[in-house]
């Protein structure tokens, strides 16, 4: 498809809908998503992986909006979930249990029970304690728990921030490669447990196929050893992590990823599972915000907006860079600005030292590539209700989540 956000007569649009029209209906701050872009990115991956049996288990944590989950469910996507709440969302959106994998290092007994009751495809087990707890619970419930063990291959993947590197030995994730074979032997003998696959996930926002190849090397070595021990496997889960372009950096294409992994996976005869999130939804979203004030001080020009770090925390938390532009271009002079929010924190910023057309109070700004880890990480800090979310499909815009109100903020509290 064409780019999801383009200008017509100087005004930025999402697909066929002018962004000011959306603000007129639903206000700011406002998350806007392109359904066409989401469908296109999923289709790219699905086509690229077509030479082998595969499951694209969308990473729900990237953006759990039900309208997005339903869009992907209709296309045959599965889900990668990391909590009971995400599992329930995936099921509510119509994703069947047989297309769901449950990851995460701290699954509670209640969450394990939920996964067993929903008959999910696999639990990606991350500790011996979890494996034994799952065995005990499955036996008590009269169920069989399908498992894969998440391997930690000790790979320092080249992600932009150390928080998003999950495949090296010092992280909490997975089982050390040298310990994994023993854990598989234990799993094969435990009652109530069925070994179904093997799992690895090395990080997020990876812009090179080489680390995926290294992770695959580590996993395939173990696959060979397990087959020698007559421990059968059905699938190989390579996790997620495919990056996108935030600042004109070269991103990994679905085809390049497939060319790097498909031939070697095909040799094993195993089903390929991947867990993309950002790759599918990241470029499909913008955050619209209105300029409240512009002020100067300390050699800085501050553009103060009605969106803050509670609405989009990536710039503050991950040093994330997002393109920002006026929704309606006026051809005015450029200058260097800090785009900041109303939150009572020095760390409340959306862009620093950004050269752009200097906006005026009342104007709208669009913050790009926020479809992943935008709303999903939003909070109510400073008692600010979270934004509305809108899904655009061609010339049609639909409210996917209403704006929160103050009543929503206090609804769960008990008066003493």
Report what the structure shows.
- The chain is α/β, with parallel strands linked by helices and 416 residues long.
- It has helices spanning 19-26, 35-48, 66-74, 84-92, 109-117, 128-141, 177-189, 210-228, 254-268, 278-281, 314-318, 406-410, and strands at 5-8, 11-14, 17-18, 30-34, 54-59, 78-81, 100-102, 122-125, 145-152, 175-176, 193-200, 235-237, 271-274, 285-297, 300-305, 324-326, 334-340, 349-357, 364-367, 388-393, 396-401.
- The strands form three sheets. Strands 4, 14, 15, 16, 17, 18, 19, 20 and 21 form a nine-stranded mixed beta sheet that branches.
- Helix 5 packs across helix 6, helix 7 packs across helix 8 and helix 8 runs parallel beside helix 9.
- The chain is globular and about 70 Å long.
- Mean pLDDT is 93; it is low at 161-169.
Q: How does the SSE layout of this entry go?
A:
Elements: E1 5-8, E2 11-14, E3 17-18, H1 19-26, E4 30-34, H2 35-48, E5 54-59, H3 66-74, E6 78-81, H4 84-92, E7 100-102, H5 109-117, E8 122-125, H6 128-141, E9 145-152, E10 175-176, H7 177-189, E11 193-200, H8 210-228, E12 235-237, H9 254-268, E13 271-274, H10 278-281, E14 285-297, E15 300-305, H11 314-318, E16 324-326, E17 334-340, E18 349-357, E19 364-367, E20 388-393, E21 396-401, H12 406-410
Parallel strand pairs: 4-20, 5-6, 5-13, 6-7, 7-8, 8-9, 9-10, 9-11, 11-12, 12-13, 15-17
Antiparallel strand pairs: 1-2, 2-3, 4-14, 14-15, 14-19, 16-19, 17-18, 20-21
